[in-house]
Amino acid sequence: MNKFLLDRLHDMSEAELYDALYKDHLTGVLNRRAFSAVGFQAVAVVDMDSLKYLNDTYGHRIGDRYLRRLAKELVRVFGDAHVFRIAGDEFAVVGPSRAYLIRGLVKIREERFEGMSFGVACNLTKADKLLGLEKRHREAAGVRAARGEVPPWIDGAEKFG
Description:
- This protein is an alpha+beta fold.
- It is built from seven helices and five strands; from the N terminus they run ααβαβααββαβα.
- It has a five-stranded mixed beta sheet.
- It is globular and about 55 Å long.
């Protein structure tokens, strides 16, 4: 093991250790490790549409801004103890019921962040399958771009503030 890193661990406070273990460094929300330790009645898998397009067209700093913005909206509606970044552009949100999660996610998409798709179920596997169905439905309806195509909700880099 790296002695420098071990020494750094010994110098960390409990809060710093918690953040290092359970928080996503980019978005500030809880991470996949934290998600694996929580129980829930319902879970949503939320996917930010068109991250590859944003990164390839405008650069990773813009893609990162949008990831942080989506995380902020999820925390605003559901609270920081209920939002987890579980993969590159995917978040999990846990809550007391499917209806509760759906209402909050629809509100976010209609009022603040239209570039997202989601699936909600009683477990992660089912939620992920429903996410895939919603992505295909939104692509067919023209409100979600196919991978690598220009998303309909983006006019240009000036919107990325």
